[in-house]
Amino acid sequence: MDIMPKWAEVVLVPLISLILAAIISALVILAIGEDPIAAVKLMIEGSLGSTYGWGYTLYYATNFMFTGLAVAVAFHARLFNIGGEGQAMLGGLGVALACLYIPWPHWSLALLGATIGAAAFGALWAAIPAYLQAKRGSHIVITTIMFNFIAAALLNYVLVNMLRPTGSMDPATARFSEVVHLPTLHDLLAPFGIEFSKAAPANVTLLVAVLACLAVWLLIWRTRLGYEIRAYGHSESAAKYAGISPVKITMIAMLISGGLAGMMAINNVMGEAERLVLNATEGAGFIGIAVALMGRSHPVGVFLAAILFGFLYQGGAELALWTSIPRELIVVIQALVILFTGALDNMVRMPLEKLFLAMRKKES
Amino acid sequence: MTAPAIELKGISKAFGPVQANKDISISVMPGTIHGIIGENGAGKSTLMSILYGFYKADKGEIHIAGKQTHIPDSQAAIAAGIGMVFQHFKLVENFTVLENIILGAEDGGMLMPSLNKARRILLELEKEYGLNVDPDAVIEELGVGMQQRVEILKALYRHADILILDEPTGVLTPAEAAQLFRILDRLREEGKTIILITHKLREIMDITDTVSVMRRGEMTATVKTSETSPTELAELMVGRKVLLRVDKEPAKPGEVVLDIQNLRVVDDKGVERVKGIDLNVRAGEVLGIAGVAGNGQSELLEVLGGYAHGTGTITMNGQPIDLTGKSSDGRSRRASGIAHVPEDRQREGLIMPYHAWENVAFGYHHDHNYNSGFLMDNKALRDDTNAKIEKFDIRPADCWQEAKNFSGGNQQKIVVAREIERNPDLLLIGQPTRGVDIGAIEFIHQQIVALRDQGKAILLVSVELEEILSLSDRIAVMFDGHIMGERMPNETDEKELGLLMAGMTGEVA
Amino acid sequence: MDFLTLLQVLDSTVRLATPLLLACLAGLFSERAGIFDIGLEGKMLAAAFFSAAFAAITGSVWLGLLAGIASSVALSGLHGLASITFRGNQLISGVAINFLASGLTVLIAQSWFSQGGRTPSLMGEGRFEPITLPFADALKDMPILGPIYYELISGHSILVYVAFACVPLTWWILYRTRFGLRLRAVGENPAAVDTAGISVVGLRYVAVAICGILCGIAGAYLATALQAGFVKEMTAGRGFIALAALIFAKWRPWYALSACLLFGFLQAIALRYQNIDLGAFTVPVQFMDALPYILTVVILAGFVGKAIPPRAGGEPYVKER
Fold first, then answer.
1. Are C96 and A335 inside 8 Å of each other by CB?
2. Contact check, Cβ <8 Å, B91/C178
């Protein structure tokens, strides 16, 4: 029944999708009168050519690991969580409250507290759409989209009317105290004698993200809960037969998903900006969709795809700096990756299946 | 001599590596009813789908009324005078009867004139064939029998001379089926040609003029109905003598294991499907529930299995079971000694993309043997699976295969192995041999009897009367949510049970 | 609030409701045919850019409109390719189209005009100007009705009248024509349409194309009538508000009109009054911004009447064996 071997499905389909996206992007670059090869060189140089570049690449990748894992966990329960953006925004609020109002003695405790705050707020924001899906059958895709907009409005209100320091015109919180500043990769690697750029924002949160990948892998593939989540994702009727409660799984999967999306905030709010600003998420919640699709909802795939998108983001910023190609090129690439891996996947798969069928016939 | 209404010559069709139809030829004379009989998966529906333009045959010719006809799509089939009544009706549920009838056969771009014309013609058709349907009724408010009439009217409205019916009685009560056959009789008198696809021998014997038998994609015989017998057809169908009776000792019923008092079940749509039934199953006996599909048997199993709510009292080994509360789920049911082989293994019993070894724990994944601390013990699962594969002769013998890659019979063996090996006090088993090959049927039947002989209680639900008669120690018949009566298998016959299944009590016969 | 202020708010309601209404009806055609479309936003955005760009280059707003429609229909075609031909995930396709439009519009705008992702401001023939309806000036001074006619009904661009005319037209197409019957049927049960000998694929592509045309007009209206030129992300979530309105309207044309007018009214209020003082407490402007989304969630939750989408919506059609 399976025409293609599993490795082809897991490796070839995303790879070909990526190549297709790259070819189209190259054509777009050509069309606006720039040299695609020079552009790629510039991107690689700018994102991987120095520890400064790496620092940014890994910083972005950290964001995308969290949001990618968030989408992936929900995907396993066949739930499409488009609300990562809003959940990450709320996560930022959780981080800001934890950092501003609790006198932490040390950054490590603050990191723990902020992580809990971020995850709790993100999970809370996912809880309402999850509950409405589980109990009222409201389509979670639509409700999570709506909740992104509601989150933006809420955050705007909270920043402008409540958290803005008196006298400041900026819709942002005050700076966090020195104590809760997270060590950057420069600080972490210095004891080992490794020189890493001081200016780059990559920080200890990267390790938290890698731990999150590991934890999600354990959860999905090794625990009973993961077994139940996947079973429910494959067949709701079978899950009911087996005594797996759809309400429970929908709620738990979405809470974990929202929590992971929220945790992104410890990277961008606590690790980088060190205060909460409007639009701190910069669309990272949506990139999680591309990352999860590209990574086939597997933590290892998500990890790799997040680094790829980190590279694209940093490379894109460099392009915008040195050429007339605006940063939005990355949005186009992101769109194409989502399109090819998530919606036109059959277009990619069909010729591959024919190829494998022909090869099999030849063998026999 | 008149040309045949339909003539198929050498039709072949493959889906990937599966040869669904192999070099099939038939010819059907106008004004006759031709039956096509065969087991599930014999290729009947594929053949008819080719005739209706749903699939393109790899090889072969179609002749309609003596003319070679090319049927690339349904439109061409309709133009050639072919109408089809599918097993699952193709009606728009929230449209009226009239709207459904004109869909695709409208006159012009405006709706009103089409609807008015259709109303007129519909009244004529209804008079001509005795098919009464309210043209303004909304489909979802009609019963299945009525919906089927709409499908027939749809075909007649399109001037169909050839009518194909795919398993038309599957969802009908015997009374409704009889009514359908009267309609078909009438259509035959009016000169229509009818192809009836079924796996029920009695229908073939009752109404057809000629019959073709299909087996594994091939046409094994075409005979005049008057010159054959059910036994002969059955042999042609399965390719060897059928074992009608399972060898078993008389039952030695013990204590009551499961006791059901006044059980009522209301489905999601608010329709009462089980209307106050009383039943019990004893240790060491098989209670068979007979009935046409859709008369509340599925809901009964769902409540007992813990995934539908009900009201009433159910006790298991004397202990009351929670029917609506927190512990009304599959996990609690399993804990109280109930195992369940569900009616639909692909939708319920198995997770198709899961490996065999993951499926072996399905529903029992909380068992401490399968877990070590916080994580699942995959090694233990695989060892257990390999043991079951050997004991139940599951093929391919590979615990890493995904469930979807096993044949229907082997999938069912995985489910049966999982449930029986838990050594339950009560086994619920629904349609144990649906879509299962003959070899596996025998094996599964033996397993059921063996479990009974160990003193376990078994509740068997099947729409196959033969299966009920050969396995059960006691038979209850369900109709419209009620138990119509209980019979001992040696004191009853198919005729009496058939009447009960149609909602008639014994005296009428 | 005096009478004239009320009229001005309502006038602004009409103008703000117009793009919502067009996009909402666009979504209605697509979703009634069983193709979910969360890419309304992207199609509007693409159309806004291309209409403004072509209007700026050619100096003709009509050519701009055509270009806008063409770009939107092209994206519809892509959505159709993914969700109809290749039976892909319609929601993911919609998400991709939104990002594609968001990125490409800025990329091309930068390449063509080098104005930071904008088009040049449109003037004269490059814009849809307000139309003064017959007798508007003459009747202006009549009490009550005069100002209503002059301020509220007259003085909009042609696209506003087109949008409002589309409501009865959509109703008529849907419920009074053969095409409408088939369209509704294919969104409910494509198998019924298929066995009746009608092409499911063909019908759905037509529906998706109509969706593209209407989104195109909506986008063109934004850039060439409501405003004078394209700016980055100028749709500002209107595609999603239209989607919300569609759910609010339970996929029906007249209800769509009411829902879009309501949401347009909320936008007009939020635009005119920053924070609304109700005496006891103030309604913050952010709440007004979020209100359409909150209302939609409430409707979706089924607390106020259940919104049941077309039954075959979101599912690719595969013939069963």
1. yes
2. no
